[in-house]
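Issue 218. Parser rejects a valid record. Input:
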Amino acid sequence: MIQYYVVGGEYKDTHFVEAVGGDEQWFGPFADYDAAMKEWAKHAWQTVDECTTRFRIECIDNDAPPPCTD
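Output the parser choked on:
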């Protein structure tokens, strides 16, 4: 089953690698992309003027096999 999450927050710089405080915020899960998009829009528009804050939508398929690590 595919689940969608909104992930992000405030980062130390505009490379968006290291989150302030060390952890990104996760919102969800959402059953469909449209619900996740509404949540993403809410967070994105609340922080539109903050250049080091960013949110994205992550898709996780719990039924898919894990990626090969060989």
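Fixed in the parser; the record now loads. The two ends are 25 Å apart (CA to CA).
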